[in-house]
Structures are given as structure tokens and as C-alpha cells.
Amino acid sequence: MKVSDAIILVVGVLLTIAVCIFGINIYKMVTGQSNNIQAQLNDMNNELSQQKYSIYDNTSLQGAQVINAVRKYSNADQFGIEIITGKDPAGKWYGKTVDLLTGVVGAAGSGVAANLEDESDVQYINISATFTSKLVYDANNVVRAIVFTQK
Fold first, then answer.
1. 3-state secondary structure of 116
2. CA 24 centroid distance within chain
3. pLDDT digits (tens, 9 = 90+) for 113-129
4. Residue 83 pLDDT more than 90?
5. Which of 10, 15, 39, 100 is the most buried (most CB within 10 A)?
6. Closest of 107, 115, 106, 100 to residue 67, by C-alpha
7. 35: left (phi over 0), alpha (psi -120 to 50) or beta
């Protein structure tokens, strides 16, 4: 083997190593960026999924809106709605029960959505009654419950 052939072989090996190192660095950079983008997309998704509850954040609502909220959200996973009325000051939970201080979701609530429009039932809600609403968050700042209190 000639010296010039050996030099070409060494240069070829060094060039191959340099291309491999360059490729690995590009891969690491792209992977880091894609992880950052994925985290940002997850944050945006969580924010958008919680946005649907913003209309119930410290607002006044009519009874019809409360009934609609129960119909819409009482079957949601890991979520509950508490309704406190003049007839039922202890309140009833629809969906799941939720600890108001910690936002920890518990057992199934005892409220029956069908009874909300039955005037003879203690759970009855007058569609023109006024309620205030409050959201309950868990430790991860996820909405776990809505509490409606009749004025």
C-alpha cells in the first residue's frame, strides 16, 4: 500500500467520523426542539380543554343554564357538579363528589338529573332562579367541579 493510499484512507475515515458526529448533533438538536414543541402543544391542549368551564367561573346564571350544565358535564370522567338550592341547602352532587378544598374526586354523587325539572322533588330547579357559580380546581390546576348556589 502506498503512502498516498494510506492518506486517502485516513482522510476518508476522519471524514466519515466527522459526518457521523455532525449527524448525531443534528439529531440531538432536533429531538430537543421536538420535545419542547410537544410540551407546548400539551400545555395548549390542556388550556383549551379547561376553557369550556370558564363561563362558570364566578358568574351569575339562570336555573336553565344550571340544568344544561348538569346535562352536559355530569357524565364527564373525574368531574362533579354540586347544586345548593333554597329547598336543599345541604346540596346534591351530580356526576362525582369532589372535595371542595383539594379538588380530589370521590364517589358517585346522589343527585339525579331527571329530578331537576320535577317540581315535587327537593332537587327541583326553577329555570328562572338565579345561581352563582364557582369552579373547584385540583392540585394540578385542572377543573374538577362546578358549584352552583342559589341566590
1. helix
2. 37
3. 888 888 888 888 888 89
4. yes
5. 100
6. 115
7. alpha
Q: Is the dihedral of CA 121, 125, 128, 131 positive or negative?
A: positive
User: By the 8 A CB rule, do 58 and 147 touch?
Assistant: no
Please state, in angstroms and rounded to a whole number, the distance separating the CA atoms of residues 148 and 130. 10
- 112, 73, 86, 92 alpha-carbon torsion, rounded to 10°: 50
| pTM of the model as a whole | 0.69
User: What is the spatial distance between Cα 110 and Cα 51, in angstroms, rounded to a whole number?
Assistant: 27
- Per the DSSP assignment, residues forming a β-bridge with 81 are 94, 146
The number of beta carbons lying within 10 Å of the beta carbon of residue 79 is 20
Cell of 35: 420535545
Residue range 30-78, pLDDT digits in tens: 888 888 888 888 878 877 777 888 888 899 999 999 999 999 888 888 8
What torsion, rounded to 10 degrees, do the Cα atoms 12, 13, 14, 17 define? 120
Sign, CA torsion 109/127/85/137: positive
In tens, the pLDDT along 4-18 reads 888 888 888 999 999
State mean pLDDT over 92-110.
87
